[in-house]
């Protein structure tokens, strides 16, 4: 089953990073540089279409459907287990350490 059908293709998703657990290895940036970026502090942050890093704790960026697979792979491979992908509608985590 593809990730889009697991999550529901019509569902809007957003992603955030718990920087307290980020190791700074940059795996997420390799998978999805459109969504993740390492800042000069060596930690990864999410960003949106404006390319501005969202540096508030728990700040989210939208997950475009075209990048969903890359973002999900990032969450699965993240050594810090700190990439959280959730539904915008009810804030339920669908990929990441707190997903069922
Ligand atoms: S993959 Fe996880 S631990 Fe590695 S830089 Fe990205 S958020 Fe941080």
Automatic annotation (TrEMBL):
<comment type="function">
    <text>Ferredoxins are iron-sulfur proteins that transfer electrons in a wide variety of metabolic reactions.</text>
</comment>
<dbReference type="InterPro" id="IPR052395">
    <property type="entry name" value="ET_Ferredoxin"/>
</dbReference>
<keyword id="KW-0408">Iron</keyword>
<keyword id="KW-0249">Electron transport</keyword>
<keyword id="KW-0813">Transport</keyword>
<protein>
    <recommendedName>
        <fullName>Ferredoxin</fullName>
    </recommendedName>
</protein>
<dbReference type="GO" id="GO:0009055">
    <property type="term" value="F:electron transfer activity"/>
</dbReference>
<keyword id="KW-0004">4Fe-4S</keyword>
<dbReference type="InterPro" id="IPR017896">
    <property type="entry name" value="4Fe4S_Fe-S-bd"/>
</dbReference>
<keyword id="KW-0479">Metal-binding</keyword>
<keyword id="KW-0411">Iron-sulfur</keyword>
<dbReference type="GO" id="GO:0005506">
    <property type="term" value="F:iron ion binding"/>
</dbReference>
<dbReference type="GO" id="GO:0051539">
    <property type="term" value="F:4 iron, 4 sulfur cluster binding"/>
</dbReference>
<dbReference type="Pfam" id="PF13459">
    <property type="entry name" value="Fer4_15"/>
</dbReference>
<feature type="domain" description="4Fe-4S ferredoxin-type">
    <location>
        <begin position="13"/>
        <end position="41"/>
    </location>
</feature>
<dbReference type="InterPro" id="IPR001080">
    <property type="entry name" value="3Fe4S_ferredoxin"/>
</dbReference>
């Amino acid at each position: 089953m593809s990730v889009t059908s697991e999550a529901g293709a019509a569902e809007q998703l957003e992603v955030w990073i718990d920087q307290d657990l980020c190791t700074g290895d940059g795996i997420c940036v390799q998978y999805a540089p459109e969504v993740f970026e390492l800042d000069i502090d060596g930690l990864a942050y999410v960003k949106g279409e404006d390319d501005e890093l969202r540096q508030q704790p728990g700040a989210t960026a939208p997950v475009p459907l075209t990048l969903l697979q890359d973002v999900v792979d990032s969450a699965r491979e993240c050594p810090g287990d700190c990439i959280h992908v959730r539904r915008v509608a009810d804030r339920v985590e669908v990929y990441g350490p707190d997903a069922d």
